[in-house]
Amino acid sequence: MYLLAGIGNKGQQFNKTRHNVGFLIIDEVIQRYGFDKQKISLEADTYKGLILNKKVMCIKPMTYMNNSGKAIAKLISFYKIPLKKTFVFHDDIDLSLSRVKIKLGGSSAGHNGIKSIDAQIGKEYNRVRIGIKNSLKTISAKNFVLQKFSEEEYTKINNKIDKLVKNINLLLEENFSNLLNILSN
To answer: Could you tell me if residue 168 is left (phi over 0), alpha (psi between -120 and 50 degrees) or otherwise beta?
Structure first.
């Protein structure tokens, strides 16, 4: 079984904010592949389905960004999901808008959601970083990530999410270079 985890903040006031790009991706996976919401509540909204005959769990932690690790750790433990088959989708303020990078392990780069996950399960899981670059140097990073995308930014992010989710099988197959090639066009 695979785990796709999108991290963000719960609540209407955080919809379409830069920090919730992980939730946007999971919402698209759930819709596109017809995943079913699970009754199990491990401090998260959880969904189950198939992508090319591979069993996949999707999770949106409801613990707020800075405590995402709690919910993800519970789900990994409950379903015995290997870290190598765990993919966490999150915003990256240092990457240009809609740029995607994928890596196994590494530093949190100051991202509190990733720090929480690292503290709960270690660092040997796959991270899918989506750029939200702060072009407004007059605003703090904390305030920037909690702002809603502009209409133009939201369109650009949604187009990238659409491409990513259409080709999610390449992520599950660990064919990262082909996926990144597709996403760069």
So the answer is: alpha
Strand pairing report for 86-92 and 2-6? parallel
35: domain CATH number is 3.40.50.1470
Digit-coded pLDDT (tens) for 161-182: 999 999 999 999 999 999 999 9
Query: Cβ neighbours of residue 66 under 8 Å, at least 6 residues apart?
Result: 112, 113, 115, 116
In-domain check, residue 143: yes
Q: What is the pTM of this model?
A: 0.95
Distance from CA of residue 6 to its chain's centroid? 3
Cα gap 74→95, rounded to integer Å: 30
Q: Which residues are catalytic?
A: 19
Task: Answer yes or no: is 59 within a domain.
Answer: yes
